[in-house]
Automatic annotation (TrEMBL), chains A, B:
Family: Belongs to the Gfo/Idh/MocA family.
PANTHER family in alphabetical order: OXIDOREDUCTASES, TRANS-1,2-DIHYDROBENZENE-1,2-DIOL DEHYDROGENASE
Record SUPFAM superfamilies: Glyceraldehyde-3-phosphate dehydrogenase-like, C-terminal domain (SSF55347), NAD(P)-binding Rossmann-fold domains (SSF51735)
Keyword terms, alphabetized: Oxidoreductase
EC numbers: 1.1.1.179
InterPro entries: Gfo/Idh/MocA-like_OxRdtase_N, Gfo/Idh/MocA_domain, GFO_IDH_MocA-like_dom, NAD(P)-bd_dom_sf, XacA-like
Protein name: Putative dehydrogenase
GO molecular function (one): nucleotide binding
Domain Gfo/Idh/MocA-like oxidoreductase N-terminal: 21-134
UniProt cross-references to NCBIfam families, sorted A to Z: XylDh_Gfo6_Halo (NF041392)
Amino acid sequence: MHDWIDGYDERDWQTTEEGTVRYALIGLGWWTVDVAIPAIEHSDLGEVSVLVSSSTEKAERLAAENDVERGISYDQYHDGAASDAYDAVYVGTPNAFHLEYAETAAELGKAVLCEKPMEATVERAERLVEACENEVPLMIAYRMQTEPAVRRARELVESGFLGEPVSVYGANGQPLLEMNPDHDQWRLDPDLSGYGTSVMDLGIYSINTTRYLLRREPVSVASRMSSHHVAFADVPDERASSSLLLEDDVHVITTSSQRAHEDTHLKLTGTEGTIELDPAFHGEATLKLSRSAVSVEVDHGEFDAQREVREVFDYFADRVLTDAEIYPDGRHGLVDMRIIEAIHRAAEEGEPVEL
Amino acid sequence: MHDWIDGYDERDWQTTEEGTVRYALIGLGWWTVDVAIPAIEHSDLGEVSVLVSSSTEKAERLAAENDVERGISYDQYHDGAASDAYDAVYVGTPNAFHLEYAETAAELGKAVLCEKPMEATVERAERLVEACENEVPLMIAYRMQTEPAVRRARELVESGFLGEPVSVYGANGQPLLEMNPDHDQWRLDPDLSGYGTSVMDLGIYSINTTRYLLRREPVSVASRMSSHHVAFADVPDERASSSLLLEDDVHVITTSSQRAHEDTHLKLTGTEGTIELDPAFHGEATLKLSRSAVSVEVDHGEFDAQREVREVFDYFADRVLTDAEIYPDGRHGLVDMRIIEAIHRAAEEGEPVEL
């Protein structure tokens, strides 16, 4: 227990402390500017050298404000501008633009760290994988996979803490319109977001973290989804609830909503114990364990969203610098895309879809 | 807040403090003997006057041990023995025997407090309602409905705490074979338990408490269920996960398992807040509230299973003594039976069933 507590925040994945990956950041929304830039500034193995945005002017202004060497436009990026100044790209644009930036990165020989979900559709995600495979390293930025609470949960699952896994509950909900009141935001536009909004943007946390923890893939999904508020007129899933059957008959149930009180939760129940992340996502994961008649809540120091992002960038840099295997690679992300597409199809058809 | 805290355990349902209902307890399993008898002993409006069991000998022995006036056999009960000694019956037998004891009670003019689920099948539950309706008071012993945490949650829902209800998560799991290792126990025998084991015995808590709190009924259910362990060979639902769509498009997801680590949980999420019972059932309900950026956990004095049962008996007695309406009456319980039957059918057919 003593070692476990002392090693709680330890980076069990780190293999090098030497070297630096210089990033071009593509897509300068609040997440990139307010979370990713400071996260990389505090990281061990990364630095931001180029910002890429819609216009040279905007990119240069943000570069100056954030003490970054170069600012270039999307067009300049595609033309190979400043390509000596960076080693890798971070793609943080709306989903439907990931492919084009990854394709250019692959042509330029730059490693790609791509936000999740990896693209708007399965077909485009497949093209993204093909563009990078055997060309450049590709990682999907599932930041739960380097979150210490999740990695400790993974160790516990692996060591048999749960006994036989029985069921999983995952929830991810937020009041999107309170965070951004704009009805025209890209997350509500299927041309930019893809199949929908709440499963693509939120449900994916429950799905991917469950896959990561249990190492079992869904074989069948069923789902219900619906939209009510006028801002959600173009997307089918203002709210969604899904049922996934994993290999070995593990029952997974999830909810996601873009118009609900903030709520993130993941609970794995087995024959012998439960492992709970409550809250689970968005930089505040708290681990709760229960087995026999004992319950433990692991209260630890600050590990906010920025710190989570720092871990992702350093994991990626560690892999790129040592030419090592990446766990959440393109093929790993592609499985989520297929699951999400099947969830949407199951909701539309009103019956389970086999995977 | 001050009044709310002071009134937390208050019986907002109580209308009389006068009178006594004398009970015949039918079915003397551990629940009746270890929980119900002491609960009634401590109750305000009830007393146990007759015990009814398989043989006169067993009933008389248990009566003597528990300081109860009379002990009679099932046959004697049906013949009207000792009927001057009790006003009401508590039916705590295996599900498939509820009907016959309720029928006799109705013939004898005795009020009926019947355990949930009310019978083994919808058809038998309908006969039970018909036997009692317009003859004697009938209540189904949903003890969550008189649990203070649940009643306070109900007040909050009614006052708009959640905003618009979005989704509900309900879980109820237990390690049945650790509690009772007998593979031949009635909960694993469909002739005695009915449609199955985990939804009938455990899932019903999530279903009924959600109905009680939201006052919305399911319009469609979908479900998966499976059995693995040899002891569960005759029942389809060692584990089950279900999705219920309520009126007003509230998405409900639930799990139940008879072979899992103990876990009871109910969470209601709305556009403005969440109301959580964690743990939820089996005499340890703890209320957790969240709205705006504020979270509150309501930690209260002991309110164990016996205390929960005392509330149910006194609520029932209060209604019988004042001839008042019973909320969880036969028709209310019948809805649960229809939901459970539909859940089993949906799992069998592999597609949603409309209600």
